[in-house]
Amino acid sequence: GATTVAGVAGAPVRHSLSPLIHNAWLAAAGIDGVYVPFSPPADSFIPFVDGLRGGAVRGLNVTLPFKEEALMAADDVSPRARLAGAANLLVFSPEGAVHADNTDGVGLLHAFAVQAPGFDPKAGPVVILGAGGAARGAAAAFVDAGSPQVRIVNRTLMRAEQVAGTVGEAAVPYPLDKAAEAMAGAVAVINATSAGLSGQGELDAPLEAAPAGAVAMDMVYKPLRTPFLARAEALGLRTVDGLEMLIGQAIPSFEAFFGRRPPVETDVRAICLEALSQ
Ligand code: NDP
């Protein structure tokens, strides 16, 4: 048969770790497939997707800045992608239809399962810092996983209120200056802001207000040890990182592209750590 082709679309896409992850799994599983980076022009993502309909590409992961536009490019959208307001996965049917999904929530829960074994989302409130697409997806994933309350803390309160409004009754909005209040009694605190990203400035979050048993998670993985995670470690909190989330979102993506579960025993984390250290 023909080689199965999938890829990741982003701008910039050059530093994406997704090709490393998927190609390592393809090689280990002996699948005749390839995963390539695509860099569509910033203003023509939808025509780019339309041009791939019914063609040789089986599907795409979608990264910044196209995750919201990916919803508009699709013919149908999964409930979890609709709830997140963003898609990180587009799958093409042989007939040319485009299906949008969002596997970031799966990735987030995978990261907790791997790096904070025994963590129970049902055990108490979860704090999510940020109100962008990543925060929205995380809030939806924790509500689905049975969190009794999801506290959305954001610098711009109105955006936190909007996210809480779409996620439902379990979500409660807080302004950033009430973050300490939000952290009281929390079982997890998740940084879903872009603060911490190299060159993006630091997030002013009073982690010392979180209980000693809380888990701190940062979606940012460049650098892997963000100032937020360093502070959490200094406070003795368990930590979960964004690289494990990236690997976790790739698992259902790989299944959608190549029709089988990836060989997760392959140490793609080591491959990514090597790339991040360069
Ligand atoms: P958005 O740009 O949509 O949202 C950014 C959020 O960060 C906003 O809530 C914004 O607040 C807040 N913010 C930015 N800078 C600061 C600051 N200095 N202090 C306080 N708040 C700040 O981004 P996304 O939701 O798409 O993504 C968020 C992050 O998550 C990105 O870094 C992304 O790379 C990462 N990510 C990682 C994934 C993984 O697999 N590890 C998957 C998905 C995302 P305000 O509303 O006030 O502007």
TrEMBL record:
Residues 8-89 form the Shikimate dehydrogenase substrate binding N-terminal domain. Pfam families: SDH_C (PF18317), Shikimate_DH (PF01488), Shikimate_dh_N (PF08501). NADP(+) binds at G130, A131, G132, G133, A134, N154, R155, T156, L157, M158, R159, M219, G242. It catalyses: shikimate + NADP(+) = 3-dehydroshikimate + NADPH + H(+). Residues 242-268 form the SDH C-terminal domain. It comes from the Bacteria. Pathway: Metabolic intermediate biosynthesis; chorismate biosynthesis; chorismate from D-erythrose 4-phosphate and phosphoenolpyruvate: step 4/7. Its EC number is 1.1.1.25. Keywords: Amino-acid biosynthesis, Aromatic amino acid biosynthesis, NADP, Oxidoreductase. Shikimate binds at S16, L17, S18, T63, N88, D104, Y221, Q249. Gene3D superfamilies: Leucine Dehydrogenase, chain A, domain 1, NAD(P)-binding Rossmann-like Domain. GO terms for molecular function: shikimate 3-dehydrogenase (NADP+) activity. Residues 125-195 form the Quinate/shikimate 5-dehydrogenase/glutamyl-tRNA reductase domain. The active site is at K67. Involved in the biosynthesis of the chorismate, which leads to the biosynthesis of aromatic amino acids. Catalyzes the reversible NADPH linked reduction of 3-dehydroshikimate (DHSA) to yield shikimate (SA). NCBIfam families: aroE. Belongs to the shikimate dehydrogenase family. Homodimer. This is Shikimate dehydrogenase (NADP(+)). It comes from Phenylobacterium terrae. The gene is aroE.
